[in-house]
Each structure stands twice: as structure tokens, then as C-alpha cells.
TrEMBL record:
Organism: Commensalibacter papalotli (ex Servin-Garciduenas et al. 2014)
Subunit-level organization: Part of the signal recognition particle protein translocation system, which is composed of SRP and FtsY. SRP is a ribonucleoprotein composed of Ffh and a 4.5S RNA molecule.
Assigned keywords, A-Z: Cell membrane, Cytoplasm, GTP-binding, Hydrolase, Membrane, Nucleotide-binding, Receptor
Entry protein name: Signal recognition particle receptor FtsY
Domain (AAA+ ATPase): residue spans on this chain: 102-260
Length: 321
């Protein structure tokens, strides 16, 4: 029997959950919440990549609401999940293409190995299944594998892939693809890009050129710039966001490989620090393993032992209150 997406997310986050749960168990076994336990909890959260700011905010909330009371591990987990959901809720923004643009141009950026090309394929499949006409541009012209990978996805989802010769000018390719997408009435145009972060200046120049050249055809393009991050990189993801925000106007994040990391807490640190919309998360290689981000599902999956429906209700009631 196929697992639902929340079950796959929970399964994918199991390494993060286990690491967090083991540490919580060592601190909270029916004891009063005192300064020592709060200090230990803060250390646990920072070690789990939540980031110092988030950890401090969680501790302050616990200090105000539960200090001096006897708490169980389950109560701590439920309260922690609620705090995480509150941090993530403002950045939970599903990606919605503007169908009036024809095409809505999505520039996909990120370092090598984050899953940009696969993410484009999955998104093209998702929106193609909704009846939208999608096209893809193999703009990572320096990596033959990226071009081949995108062409495989194109064949799989029935979407044209525009590609050039190895080492071809990515900006010129994007320009021609945009012109073709416009002529053929495509709804979405996904543009893959190279990700050589070790040579920041060359990457910045190439991205700037792609954007500049596309604007010659459509001054509003690209309409979305999505940064793809690999969750397994932990705190390195923060530096990647900072660098790409310097290069281009990043409009949203897609976080991949949550199924292979014990560092799921990085999602919370990213939300707190940058307040960028998190559009989707990936928990595997299949097309259906990339889905809209849910603050409550992520919080419940990360902490474990928390009922996602109860958590969702509590967060909604607190917002309305």
C-alpha cells in the first residue's frame, strides 16, 4: 500500500526526529521545567540546526508559559511542534503560476547537486497533470548529464525541452525558448541553470545575463526565481540563500532531500532568518515526492508523536484568536 505524502514526509524526517527525540528523552522524564532544563533544551534545538534565534524564541515561550511546572516529554514535543508551526506558517506559500502571463517564466537556481533539474521535471509533471502546457530549458549547458536528465523528464511528462550544444550560451538559449513558448501558448516555462558556486563571479554574471536577455523579449521575465536547497547541507543552506539573494531576486524556496538528513531543523532557521516563501519540499526521487509545503505537517513530522490534525486546529484557533 502506497504511503500518503505526510507518512512519507514523516518517514523522511525520521533521522531528524530520532536525533531530536533521543536528546529530549535524556532531558525530560517527568521533571519540572527549570533554568537547567531550559538551557539543555536550547542546546538540543541549536544542535538540531534550528538556529540560535528560533531556539531562543522557543525557550522564551516555554519560560513564560510552563516554567516551574512538571512536564512530560510528550507535552514538550507537542508544545515544540506548535512553536515550529507558528514560525513556519507565514512562509507556507504554495507556488501558483500566473496563467495570464503565458508563459509564467520560472528561473531555477541553486548549487550543483541540490536537485534543480529533477525539481523542474517534477513541477512540469505536476502542472502538466493539471492540464497546463509546460516547457523546459536545459540552461545548465556545461553539464551534459543535466541536459540528458531534463530530456528524460521531458519525454516522461510530455513537455518540450529546449537545449543547445555543450557549452552553449545559456542566455541565448533562454531567449529563444521564451520566444518559442510565447508563440506556442505555453503556460509555464522552466529554465534550468548552472550552479558553480565555487566561482561566484562567473555564476553571477551568467544569471544576470540570462535575466537581462530574457527581459529584452519580456521585460517582466523571469516571473519567479526559485532557489533549490538540499536539506542535507544543514547550516550551509543559510550561506547559499544569502549568496543567491545577492545575485538575483529570489522569490521562493524549494527544499529537497528531506528524506536523507538528520538536519531537518534547518528549514526553521531559514524561515526565521529570510522569511522567503517555502513553496515545496521533496522527500524522494519520484514525481509525487515533491509537494506543497505545510507548516503543520512539517512540524508534526519533525518532532514526532504529535497529531497533525490537532496541531493544525490549535494553530488556526490561535491565529483567529
Amino acid at each position: 500500500m502506497a504511503l500518503g505524502f505526510f507518512s512519507r514526509l514523516k518517514e523522511g524526517l525520521s533521522r531528524s526526529t530520532q536525533k531530536l527525540g533521543t536528546n529530549l528523552t535524556s532531558v525530560f522524564t517527568k521533571r519540572r521545567l527549570d533554568e537547567e532544563s531550559l538551557e539543555q533544551l536550547e542546546e538540543i534545538l541549536i544542535a538540531a540546526d534550528f538556529g540560535p534565534e528560533v531556539a531562543e524564541n522557543v525557550i522564551e515561550t516555554f519560560r513564560k508559559t510552563r516554567f516551574g511546572t512538571e512536564v512530560s516529554e510528550k507535552e514538550i514535543k507537542d508544545a515544540l511542534a506548535k512553536e515550529i508551526a507558528k514560525v513556519l506558517s507565514p512562509v507556507t506559500v504554495p507556488f501558483k503560476p500566473n496563467l495570464e502571463l503565458k508563459p509564467h517564466v520560472v528561473l531555477m537556481v541553486g548549487v550543483n547537486g541540490t536537485g534543480k533539474t529533477t525539481t523542474i521535471g517534477k513541477m512540469a509533471r505536476f502542472y502538466g497533470d493539471q492540464g497546463l502546457k509546460t516547457m523546459m530549458v536545459a540552461g545548465d549547458t556545461f553539464r551534459a548529464a543535466a541536459v540528458e536528465q531534463l530530456q528524460i523528464w521531458g519525454d516522461r511528462v510530455g513537455a518540450p525541452v529546449i537545449s543547445g550544444k555543450p557549452g552553449a550560451d545559456a542566455a541565448g538559449l533562454a531567449f529563444e525558448a521564451l520566444k518559442r513558448a510565447k508563440n506556442e501558448g505555453a503556460d509555464l516555462l522552466f529554465v534550468d541553470t548552472a550552479g558553480r558556486l565555487h566561482n561566484k563571479s562567473a555564476l553571477m554574471e551568467e544569471l544576470a545575463k540570462i535575466i537581462r536577455v530574457m527581459k529584452k523579449f519580456d521585460e517582466t521575465a523571469p516571473h519567479s526565481v526559485l532557489l533549490v536547497l538540499d536539506a542535507t547541507t544543514g547550516q550551509n543552506a543559510i550561506e547559499q540563500v544569502r549568496i543567491f539573494k545577492e545575485m538575483v531576486s529570489v522569490s521562493g524556496l524549494v527544499i529537497t532531500k528531506l528524506d536523507g538528513t538528520a538536519r531537518g531543523g534547518i528549514v526553521i532557521a531559514l524561515a526565521q532568518q529570510f522569511q522567503l516563501p517555502i513553496h515545496a519540499v521533496g522527500v524522494g526521487e519520484k514525481a509525487e515526492d515533491l509537494r506543497d509545503f505545510s507548516a503543520e505537517e512539517f512540524a508534526a513530522g519533525l518532532v514526532g508523536d504529535t497529531d497533525v490534525e490537532v496541531l493544525t486546529t490549535e494553530v488556526i484557533e490561535e491565529k483567529e484568536g
